Amino acid sequence: MEKERLSTEKALQFCTVLSEQIEQIQADFQNSQDPDSTSEMLFGEGLQGCVHHMRFTLARLEEHQKSVAERLGAGFNAASAEDRASFDKLQNEAKTVRHCLAFCSDVDTYVESQISNIENHAEGDDTIQFLVSTNNKPINGKNRGIGKRQKQAGGHFGEASLQQMSQDFKSIAIHQSGHVEQEKQRSATPSGNEAPPASHQSQFGNRHGPGFVLAKTPASKLSSDTVE
Question: Which of 160, 161, 172, 176 has the fewest CB atoms found within 10 Å of its own CB?
C-alpha cells in the first residue's frame, strides 16, 4: 500500500502539471483564434474537452489518495482483492494520463506548426510594414519602425483587401513625400527671389510669354510727330 500511495502522489503531480499546460495552450489558442474558422472551432472544443477530462481525472486521483492514506493510517497492510482492485484502478488512471499526455503533445505540435512568428523592424521615413495573414494562420509578432510617417498594418486580411491596402499606403506615401519636398523647396527659396503672388501675375503670361515694359515717351514729342 505504501508503494500505491507514492504512485498515486506521483500521478497527482503529473496530472496537475499536465492540466496546467493544457490550460495554457487553451488560453494561447483562444487569443489567436479566428471565430469564422470551423476547424479552429472544432479544435478549441476538443481542447476544452481535454481540460474537463483532466480535471475529472485529477479529482478521482485525489479521492483515491485520500482513501489510501486512511487505509494506511488504520494499519491495513494485508494483500486482498480490494488491494488488487485499487492497483488495477491506478493502472487505468495512469493509462488515461498517458493518453492525455500524447494528446497534449499532438496539440503542442499542431499549435507550433500553425503559428507564424514574425518580427518586422524598419528605419527611415515613409516606410510601410505588413504583418498579416491571408490564410487564417495565427500570427505572433510585432511591427517596429523608427522614422516619420510610419505606416503599419497587422491582422487577418483577404488577398483583395491586402492589395488594396498596399496601394492605398503607397499612394499616401507618395503624396506625403511630395508635400514634404515642396515644403523643403519653399523654405530653401530666398525671400528676395520669390515669385509674385498669383493674383499679381498677368492672366496672359502662360500663353504669350513674360512680356516686357515699354519705355515712356514724352507727350510733347508725341504731338510733334503727329503734326509732321
Answer: 160
For CA atoms 184, 188, 191, 194, the dihedral sign is negative
DSSP code per residue over 98-161: HHHHHHHHHHHHHHHHH-EEEEEEEESTT-EEEEEESSS--EEEEEEEESSS-EEEEEE--HHH
Within 8 A by CB and 6+ apart from 16, the residues are 58
pLDDT of residue 207: 53
Say if pTM beats, i.e. exceeds, 0.70.
no
Contact 76, 4 (CB under 8 A): no
CB 12 within 8 A of CB 61: yes
pLDDT of residue 226: 47
Tens of pLDDT, residue by residue over 57-107, are 766 766 776 776 666 656 555 556 666 676 667 667 666 666 666 666 666
- What's the longest Cα–Cα distance across the chain? 155
How far apart are alpha carbons 69 and 8 in whole angstroms?
10
User: Tell me, what amino acid is at 157?
Assistant: F
Please write the tens of the pLDDT for every residue from 177-214.
766 666 666 666 555 455 555 444 555 455 555 555 55
Which residue has cell 523647396? 185
Higher-confidence residue: 214 or 148? 148
Residues in Cβ contact with 34 at an 8 Å cutoff, skipping those fewer than 6 apart: 40, 136, 138, 156
166-200 as b/e, with b when 16 or more CB fall inside 10 Å?
eeebeeebeeeeeeeeeeeeeeeeeeeeeeeeeee
